[in-house]
Design goal:
The chain has 148 residues and is mainly alpha-helical. The protein is 65% helix and 4% strand. It has a two-stranded antiparallel sheet. α1 crosses α2 and α1 runs parallel beside α4.
Length: 148
């Protein structure tokens, strides 16, 4: 195995995505290099062996962190870290919107109570807003004969 092949396999391991086994590494290395090496041949090179063990360890750390729900961006591939940041931002936005909806719900209940105490009907509450004179910024009632 040439030094160039070893470097290519190490690079392959450094950018590896998904589950990693020696068999999968042998298959992917054969696709990349155009020639096949055995597991023992790959394991026999210290650089390949070290890169394999480091990647396996990183995959374990990522998997354990994801199981705990506490993966840090240093432990994740860049795409997954970005997706995790977006998901966390969306989750925060949802919580904020839920709180806003709850405040509106509480305000509606208060208004409903006060409207009932004031003797207002649902029709009165649903009546449209009066017309607005855009130039003057004043509210106008639509009485017959009212001048503008």
């Amino acid at each position: 195995m040439s030094d160039q092949d070893v470097r290519a396999i190490v690079t392959l391991l450094e950018t590896w995505e998904g589950p990693l086994t020696w068999e999968r590494l042998v298959e992917r290395a054969a696709l990349v290099l155009g020639r096949s090496y055995t597991r023992q041949a790959l394991d026999g090179h210290e650089a390949v062996k070290d890169a394999y063990q480091a990647r396996k360890q990183r995959i374990r750390v990522i998997r354990d962190s994801l199981r705990k729900g506490k993966a840090t961006s240093e432990e994740l591939p860049p795409e997954l870290a970005l997706a995790l940041q977006r998901a966390e931002a969306a989750e925060l936005r949802v919580k904020a919107l839920e709180q806003t909806v709850e405040r509106y719900r509480a305000k509606f209940i208060l208004w409903l109570y006060n409207a009932r105490n004031a003797g207002l009907t649902e029709d009165q509450l649903n009546s449209p807003l009066p017309a607005v004179d855009q130039k003057a910024g004043a509210l106008w009632s639509r009485r017959k004969g009212a001048q503008r």
